[in-house]
Design brief:
rod-shaped; Immunoglobulin-like; alpha+beta
C-alpha cells in the first residue's frame, strides 16, 4: 500500500513540474511577443537628432485710394430789389473725402456748366446759374473755401487735404452776387464738378 501512494505522489510532482514548465514557457512567449511589438514600435518612430529653420517672408501692399461725396448748395429765394439789393444771398454746401492714411492732394471745383465764356478760367472762375426756361438769362454766384468768402474755390490749385483713413468734411461757402436786377423771375441752377487728386 505504501508503494502505490508514493508512486502517486511522484506522478503528481512530475505533472506539477510539467505544468510549471508549460506555464513558464507560455509566459516567456507572451513576454517575447510584447518585447517584439515594442521593438517594432520603437523602430517605426523617428529619432530626431537635430532641427532646421528657414525664414518665411509675409508681405502686402496698400494702394492710395480716395472717395468723395458732396452736399448740394441750395440758395433759396433771391430778392435783387430788397433783401439782396446790396447784400449777397449766401448758403453752404459740403465736400467729404475719405482717403488712405498719408494720401495727399487737392480738391478742386470746376467752373460750372454755365461759366461766362470770355472771362471764366480754371484759376479764376466766373460762375453763373442759368434760368430753367430761358437759356439767355443768368444769375451770377461764387464759391469760396473760407467763411469770410474771400478765397475762391477754383479748379486750378484747389484746396489741399491730407488723408486720415476717415471721412474729412470741408465746408463750401456759396454766395449769389447782390443787386442782379436784370435777372428775371423763375428758377436757376448750375452743376459743378468736384475733383479730388491723390
Amino acid at each position: 500500500m505504501v508503494a502505490p501512494i508514493h508512486c502517486r505522489k511522484l506522478l503528481l510532482k512530475k505533472k506539477e513540474k510539467s505544468m510549471n514548465i508549460k506555464f513558464n514557457q507560455r509566459n516567456l512567449k507572451i513576454a517575447i511577443s510584447a518585447a517584439t511589438a515594442l521593438g517594432i514600435v520603437a523602430v517605426s518612430m523617428p529619432a530626431y537628432a537635430g532641427t532646421g529653420t528657414s525664414n518665411m517672408t509675409v508681405s502686402s501692399s496698400i494702394d492710395t485710394a480716395c472717395s468723395i461725396s458732396t452736399t448740394n448748395i441750395s440758395f433759396g429765394a433771391y430778392d435783387a430789389v430788397v433783401a439782396n439789393a446790396s447784400a449777397p444771398l449766401t448758403a453752404l454746401g459740403g465736400v467729404s473725402s475719405t482717403c488712405t492714411v498719408g494720401a495727399g492732394g487737392n480738391i478742386k471745383i470746376g467752373q460750372g456748366l454755365n461759366a461766362v465764356p470770355d472771362s471764366s478760367s480754371d484759376a479764376d472762375p466766373d460762375r453763373q446759374m442759368v434760368h430753367a426756361t430761358d437759356s439767355t438769362k443768368f444769375l451770377k454766384y461764387e464759391i469760396f473755401s473760407d467763411s469770410d468768402r474771400l478765397v475762391e474755390w477754383e479748379n486750378a490749385t484747389g484746396v489741399p487735404y491730407t488723408g486720415t483713413g476717415g471721412a474729412e468734411a470741408l465746408v463750401v461757402y456759396g454766395s449769389v452776387n447782390a443787386g442782379q436786377t436784370s435777372a428775371i423771375a423763375g428758377s436757376y441752377s448750375d452743376t459743378l464738378i468736384v475733383t479730388i487728386n491723390y
